[in-house]
Amino acid sequence: MPVLRETEFTGEVVWLGHVPAGDSIRAKAVESLDLDFAGEKGARHEGVNRASCVRVKNLYPQGTEIRNVRQLSVLSAEEMDGMAKEMGLDRLDPAFLGVSILLRGIPDFTHIPPASRLQVRDGVTITVDMENRPCVLPGREIEADQPGYGASFKPAAKGRRGVTAWVERPGQLRLGDRMTLFVPDQRAWAP
């Protein structure tokens, strides 16, 4: 019996972004991503391992080498539209948010279970780490292009910031690809 259950949900890849290594999280729109076990070559979050950050400070001293489960930032177009509306914007550019993959069609996307898989028909597969909590970096990018709106990002993104993920099966991901959602076949944790 499979441990991962295929759902009826698929998400269409409607935007792809390359976030170059460096200080900014601003992504550049691309037609495809060539993914390998280290993520996307030349990307800010490329690597099999990474230095620990504030998100795991209760586990490790900052800078400790750990497995990189934050290779990709995956967001929902529907949730991003909700952020924009709450911020008073007609549209929010995914480039400002450091988006690697923007999907349309999976409801309540930010809360899909950790360890879920998103798979393209040809086998390219990414594994979800967990919810990507809002931080100040996208707000800075938004503020640079749309003054007066950057500070409203964090509250608008709460519960809508998408997930981080890592590459389980390499390959090329293209605009228009459809990614099927597989979720762990287990009950919710109830201690």
Can you put this structure into words, describing what you see?
The protein is mainly β and 191 residues long. The chain has a single domain, classed as PK beta-barrel domain-like (M1 Pyruvate Kinase, Domain 3, Beta Barrel). Helices cover 14% and strands 36% of the residues. It contains 3 helices and 13 strands; from the N terminus they run βββββββαβββααβββ. Strand 7, helix 1 and strand 8 form a beta-alpha-beta unit. The longest helix has 11 residues. The radius of gyration is 16 Å and the shape is globular. The mean pLDDT is 95.
Salient structural properties:
191 residues, mainly beta, M1 Pyruvate Kinase, Domain 3, seven-stranded mixed beta barrel, three-stranded antiparallel sheet, 3 helices
CATH homologous superfamily grouping = PK beta-barrel domain-like
- The unreliable regions are none
| Biggest sheet, spatial arrangement of strands | 1-8-7-11-10-9-13
CATH topology grouping? M1 Pyruvate Kinase, Domain 3
Please state roughly what percent of the residues sit in beta strands, choosing from under 5%, 5-15%, 15-25%, 25-35%, 35-45% or over 45%: 35-45%
Instruction: Please report the first level of CATH classification, the CATH class.
Output: Mainly Beta
The average pLDDT is 95
Span between termini: 25 Å
Give the class from helix and strand content and strand pairing. Answer: mainly beta
Helix share bin: 10-25%
**Count of folded domains:** 1
* Rg measurement, Å: 16 Å
Number of strands: 13
Give me the CATH architecture, please. Answer: Beta Barrel
Overall morphology: globular
Secondary-structure element series: EEEEEEEHEEEHHEEE
* Total helical segments: 3
Largest sheet: 7 strands, mixed, barrel
